Amino acid sequence: MGTESMTAWDYLLWVAFPYAASGVFVVGHLLRYRYDQFGWTSRSSQTYENRLLRWGSPMFHYGMLMVIGGHVVGLFIPKSWLEYFGVTEHLYHLGATWLGTFAAALTVAGLAILIYRRRLTKRVLLVTTVMDKVMYVFLASTIVFGTTATVLYQIFGGGYDYRGSISPWIRSLYSFQPDPSLMSDVPFFFQLHVLTATALFLLWPFTRLVHVFSAPLGYLVRPYVVYRSRDDPRGAGARPPRRGWEKSERPLERSRK
After folding, report:
1. What is the tally of structural domains in the chain?
2. Which residues contact 55 (CB under 8 A, 6 or more apart)?
3. Which domain does 14 fall in, by range?
4. Of 9, 20, 32, 119, which has the fewest Cβ atoms less than 10 A away?
């Protein structure tokens, strides 16, 4: 289908909406970092409940890392590049289907635990904001629609080559040569997945998801923090101070010398 047969809705959904979401995503993060640095946090609720969080959080985050990695390869790396390095269509389909299904199952299970915890643990529910609830709705919808599309078309169906439609559509947006006709024949659940993901990016700067850009990478290279007690070691099992450290004293004791 050529661009001359596109309707106003096609341009709204597949051109205007993605560009608007991208603009809000970038400008929203800059403004929030400038004016709301104290709110730039995931607002940890670990002190309110830890048992479910200990299972749900790693499952969700590790699953999402795998999902994001698969999307980067499938959507942003052209098919011809992968074939140049020996990744055939069959090999890519096997990896994307089965590894993607595992990553999706892990992500869905982790998200279900987190939502269950947030909804049924009273203390966690009390610190849940309206934007948290909106974020969970769009995040869950994006994951569910993407998983449904994978199961229906990639596992039980004949397979759908989104690298021939969705991938070049995304790259056309970033090259500022949008081609909405590429999305006209995309299956319904893939379209829903794309639209809810775009809406999630639109809401991103106003939710707790901003903590994604605050990974503590500096922790890996920072110097050790040394703690020294002001009191003398007491008890038979206390370790004596090592040589080379200046003994720490209370100001009152120091003034008496």
Report:
1. 1
2. 110, 113
3. 3-219
4. 9
